[in-house]
UniProtKB/TrEMBL annotation:
Keyword Methyltransferase in record: no
Organism from which the protein derives: Streptomyces yaizuensis
Family: Belongs to the FAH family.
PANTHER family documented for this protein: FUMARYLACETOACETATE HYDROLASE DOMAIN-CONTAINING PROTEIN 2A, FUMARYLACETOACETATE HYDROLASE DOMAIN-CONTAINING PROTEIN 2A-RELATED
First and last residue of the signal peptide: none
Record protein name field: Fumarylacetoacetate hydrolase family protein
Length: 262
């Protein structure tokens, strides 16, 4: 299905998937049977107002494959070298939260930072796909925030643990299908102040090439997420802040920051 928005939501204690219809001020959710990224779009014959539901992360990924150093300006600001091949790491599914859910600032860190990214949602089992066919394996795209405990990353020299904390992978507000990922605008605001602004045309490794590279070694399953890298402008936030990630054609993912419990 092209040019549509798909959500995962809670209504009256039940978690369902839906398709968003209508325009601002008159927006509804058409309830679906199953997860459209995994099961296809199957109508359930019921519609509810969008304002009546609580949006969740639009997908529950089996795995999250993330790329670092995909923008030259971010590489420069971090004082690192450009990788010869895509530099990949994994984030655990337990890090995922949805729109409006709080990012918990862990007690183990003193420098937690935002990283606005385009997130790719896989829609077909993908293994050994060439770049020329890779985008046909994509279900859609959503906004992602690759939250990072930067001090921990600097201390141990690798990203996985610093990016793995619970709540460190906000996704949403929905999945948009039918987008061309070649030149989308990405923005990040903290408390309304613009911190990051770039376009996916600046990727060192475009989306299709990234899918091809990953799938040469790792099978990607429907519902899996690829985080495509963040541009320059990364920086810290604190409890009490609100972080917003916006991508052209998708919308805005907003999350408050709260103190962690441990």
């Amino acid at each position: 299905m092209e040019g549509q928005r798909f959500v995962r939501f809670e209504l009256h204690g039940a978690i369902r998937h839906g398709r968003v219809n209508g325009t601002e001020g008159n927006t509804t959710v058409e309830v679906l049977d199953g997860d459209p990224a995994r099961d296809g779009v199957r109508q359930a014959g019921r519609t509810v107002p969008l304002d009546d539901v609580r949006l969740l992360s639009p997908v529950q990924p089996g795995k999250i494959v993330a790329m670092g150093r995909n923008y030259a300006d971010h590489i420069a600001e971090m004082g690192m070298g450009a990788p010869a091949v895509p530099r990949l790491f994994f984030k655990p599914p337990s890090a995922v939260i949805g729109p409006g859910e709080p990012i918990r600032y862990p007690a183990q860190s003193r420098q937690v930072e935002y990283e606005a990214e385009l997130a790719v949602v896989i829609g077909r089992t993908t293994r050994g796909v060439p770049a020329s066919a890779a985008l046909s394996h994509v279900f859609g795209y959503t906004c992602g925030n690759d939250v990072t405990a930067r001090d921990i990353q600097k201390a141990d020299g690798q990203p996985s643990w610093a990016k793995a904390f619970d709540t460190f992978c906000p996704l949403g507000p929905w999945i948009t299908t039918g987008l061309d990922p070649a030149d989308l605008e990405i923005r990040c605001h903290v408390n309304g102040v613009l911190r990051q602004h770039a376009r996916t045309s600046q990727f060192l490794t475009p989306v299709a090439d990234l899918i091809a590279y990953i799938s040469a070694a790792v099978t990607l399953d429907p519902g899996d997420i690829i985080l495509t890298g963040t541009p320059a402008g990364v920086g810290p936030f604190l409890p009490g802040d609100t972080v917003e990630v916006s991508v052209t054609g998708i919308g805005t993912l907003s999350n408050p920051v709260v103190p962690g419990t441990q």
